[in-house]
């Protein structure tokens, strides 16, 4: 479904990605793990052209999307819950969800909103509230819900567990499983390597802008190097 | 002091404030969405006054004015709104969009340049002399006795009513329509709006279009009222409307309308009760005071950096 081929990308003189290749098949949950600053968010943002891949190629459903404009990506069926959540703080929960329907129109908005509320009942309770006044966990749920409102084929999640209480993290990872079960392919970027690898079919390890390791979730979980570097040696 | 003098100044202030409010909308919406002060906006207002005169002359020549004055005025207004909106759109495309993503200062300088370009363009094409249009709306509403009364002319009433209706429609658009939601999303987080599939360049264009349309309503109404203007009116009126936007909280739509009304009322009271000669100074002093003591204005949020 998604194929990132030998992509490099830079911010001015700083090269953030070096020849990375990642493949995601339909129906999979694939995770990209790595330390802070490894280039995980950059990997997701190159799909939207900011920064633009300086070399290499990005294919989605067989089409070359390397040079597509940022606002056209959503229409192809790619949605993102970005780093920092980036909900619209002055809008209500419901308005935020409606903003996710841009690629598909508001025709199915009611039905899709009901599905999001089923995944996250908390959002339903807060539907009329200004999103900026909600807790971090609720904002994360909203960011994921908003992305789902566009009926994406591929959902990109950038560190959805960051800064959240363990119980909420658990719920969010459950929801990711449900989202995949409902037919959406998931590309999950995480620093929380343990949870991510347990959930994912396959994973990639990014170190300083390069793919260092890849394999099935289980393989990576038991890989001594990964255990030492990302799982605190324990578990 | 007599009550009727005070009341009369309130009425005059309401009329003036409606105009400031309409023009302030353009400053505040553009600032809200791209974080720049569109110095050419006052001149867009000036252009709309000239367009009003031109369209009115054309309709008079075609005999429409002789058949029905209200029809002529409505058509003039609509044409002026359309063409002025086109000017606003063009200014953004030509002078600001190419500079997006560069320094914060570049579009400001470009805006001052556009202001001069518009003034000179109008001066050369229309002449430097005062322009006038005949007053076509007559009638006055008067409340009170022989010597102590408050009055409002039909044109003034029209100004207040049309302004409030226009502001009401705009408020509805911003809060309840898809375009309005896209404007607000782009204002709050442009990159996220883009990721969600909103063509934010198009949204920014629409904001310039809307701002210019509001200024055009003001320009046409003022021309119907005073009937006289020159290529320089955009400057003083522009700064006052900008003051209104800052007073209300730049970036805030209700703030612009409220700021316009407060500025119009206080300027009118000042000039009627204290001193007419210093009424412009009053407005500018107010601008300075607001910037010093409450830069975020009455309804604004503290400054956010836009890139
Ligand atoms: N907007 C930016 N401008 C310049 N450098 C950036 C920018 N965003 C990220 N970087 C740099 O690119 C590298 C990768 O960052 P990022 O993709 O955010 O990493 P991660 O998401 O894995 O924490 C880091 O060295 C970071 O400092
Ligand atoms: Mg990151």
- Tertiary shape of chain B: globular
Mean pLDDT of chain A: 94
* Number of structurally distinct domains of chain A: 2
Helix segment tally of chain A: 10
Task: Tell me the greatest interface.
Answer: A-B, 25 and 17 residues
Number of strands of chain B: 4
Number of strands of chain A: 10
Quote the beta fraction of chain B.
under 5%
What does this structure look like?
The complex is a heterodimer of chains A (235) and B (307). Chain A is α/β, with parallel strands linked by helices. Chain A has two domains: 1-77 and 154-163 and 186-235, P-loop containing nucleotide triphosphate hydrolases (Rossmann fold, 3-Layer(aba) Sandwich); 84-152, no CATH class. Helix content of chain A is 37%, strand content 27%. In chain A, the strands form two sheets. In chain A, strands 6-7-8-3-9-10 form a six-stranded mixed β-sheet, with helices on both faces. Chain A is globular and about 45 Å long. Chain A starts with a strand and ends in a 5-residue tail after the last helix. The model of chain A has no long low-confidence stretch (mean pLDDT 94). Chain B has 307 residues and is mainly alpha-helical. Chain B has a domain at 19-232. Chain B is built from twelve helices and four strands, in the order αααααβββααααβααα. Chain B has a two-stranded antiparallel sheet. A two-stranded antiparallel ribbon of chain B has the order 2-3. In chain B, helix 1 packs antiparallel against helix 9, helix 1 (3-34) crosses helix 10 and helix 2 crosses helix 10. At the A-B interface, helix 2 and helix 3 of A face helix 7 and helix 8 of B. Bound molecules: adenosine-5'-diphosphate and magnesium ion (MG). Adenosine-5'-diphosphate binds at residues 11, 14, 16, 34, 36-42 of chain A.
